[in-house]
TrEMBL record:
Entry annotated with the keyword Thylakoid: no
Organism: Microbispora amethystogenes
Gene3D superfamilies linked: CBS-domain
Superkingdom, natural source: Bacteria
Pfam families, sorted: CBS
Protein's recorded name: CBS domain-containing protein
Domain CBS: 1-67, 94-145
Keyword annotations of the record: CBS domain
Amino acid sequence: MRARDLLVPFPTVGLDSPVAEAARLMAERELPGLIVLDERGTPVSILPGTQVLRLAVPRYCQDDPALARVIDEAHADAFVRALGDRTVRQALPERPRELPVTDPDATLLEIGALMARTRSPLVAVLDGGRLLGAVTLSALLKRLA
């Protein structure tokens, strides 16, 4: 089995897209992340949902889980609204990791190794620089199980 057999069309966002819009898209479609494209339409990163959470959840709650417990739900919702006008570019790590991109002929083991190495829940599949779609962690695990 190859990447082409598991890939699905996958939504993308631009670097300057609002991160709140990206979060909404992930929530509505139950996606683990999104493929981020540059101005030319070339994949430059994967925005995992966990990175959006890192931006939305106050640092003091990330550092001390006991503080997170004492904040009620009404105030917790305000943190997501605090994403405000921030962009996807601002949500990405300052030092990009290896881009989880492969070609349609990649094997399941190659895809799994790439996901593990890059800590990405999805891998973009490109053919000649053109985005075909993505292989998700859940699709890979279903096939391997």
